[in-house]
Specification:
Helix content: 25-40%
Order of helices and strands: HEEEEEEEEEEH
Radius of gyration: 19 Å
Structural class: alpha+beta
Distance between the termini: 43 Å
Number of strands: 10
Largest sheet: 6 strands, antiparallel
Length: 169
Amino acid sequence: MAESETSREESASLDGVDGPALYLCKGCRMPLAESEDLSSRLEGDTAVLLKAVTEHVWIDENKAVSTYDVDLYSTVQVLHCKGCSAVVGALYVATPVLLDFKRDLFQLNTNAVTCYCLNNPQKQRLVPVSGELTTVPYMETQLKKCRTVYGFCEQAVTEIEKILTSRRL
């Protein structure tokens, strides 16, 4: 258990953020990934490599050859935000030997994402990858909505359990 906490701390420090964080789409603030899946930062902090992304990322089925010199013409699949259809990065399908460390990893472009810190409610902030700080009332609103939905689901499960219990007797 201590090992996973250490790896989370190392991941967050790679991101320049203390503690766990979410990567959000800059366009619509849809959560795209978590810092615990962070593999590394790349190309002068212009990209973040991740082991996984959320269900809010749409992976284009078409494969393309990257024309960027830093990718050495790797085969990639483009990543889109499901919320606003913005291009947020790429999934590396095939790479030359020099870029084997990128294969099967998701790369989010730092100009397309922001990072929301989750470590302390007193310090919750949105950290654009450039390092500026802004407050995020949007995330607080979304959390309140989730708590409300959770409450309704909990009540529904309780009612179902009561019905099932009464039928068994």
